Amino acid sequence: MNLLRPADLIDHVQQITPEFLAARGLRGLLLDLDNTLIPYRSYQENTEVVRWAHDLQDAGIRLYLLSNATGKRADFWLSRLAFAGVGMAGKPHPRAFQRGARELGLPPEQVGMVGDQVFTDVLGGNLAGLHTILVRPLADNGLPHTRAARLLERQVLGRYGHRWPH
Ligand SMILES: [Mg+2]
């Protein structure tokens, strides 16, 4: 098994619809926050993402935020997104993802992990037996270690024949 390989590669979370999930046998999602739902560091309201999350929940999809951001930042967004979750989740440790799946009340094979980082979201999600969905990062956070990780990510994805269209 290729632990760094995402099951799906998408441009933005709004591409995930109830039909997309049904086709993959998924009933719930663990969602990364920074650069997946909201640009890194942003506190700007994003009605599109909030509406997308509401629509999925209306369709019976269970959502849970699994973020490594500070508890304070995670709480700010949780109050707006209107679903449960945690900050300081401890990704990529598989235990964080297993706990998330338990919170959703679903077996791992029915849970999608949606995130923008190969070495955090995809690696940990795959180790926990989840269906991993890599989303193109919303913004460049400018941190040197992230820039290095992005370079490695491109190489890993290139090896699987994946390339972001730009
Ligand atoms: Mg992220």
Automatic annotation (TrEMBL):
The organism sits in which domain of life?
Bacteria
Q: Which terms does the record give in the GO molecular function aspect?
A: phosphatidylglycerophosphatase activity
Q: Which Pfam families match?
A: Hydrolase_like
Q: Does the keyword field hold Magnesium?
A: yes
Keywords carried by this UniProt record: Hydrolase, Magnesium
Looking up SUPFAM superfamilies in the UniProt record yields: HAD-like
Q: Which InterPro entries has this protein been placed in?
A: HAD-like_hydrolase (IPR051400), HAD-like_sf (IPR036412), HAD-SF_hydro_IIIA (IPR006549), HAD_sf (IPR023214), PGPP1/Gep4 (IPR010021)
UniProt name for this protein: YqeG family HAD IIIA-type phosphatase
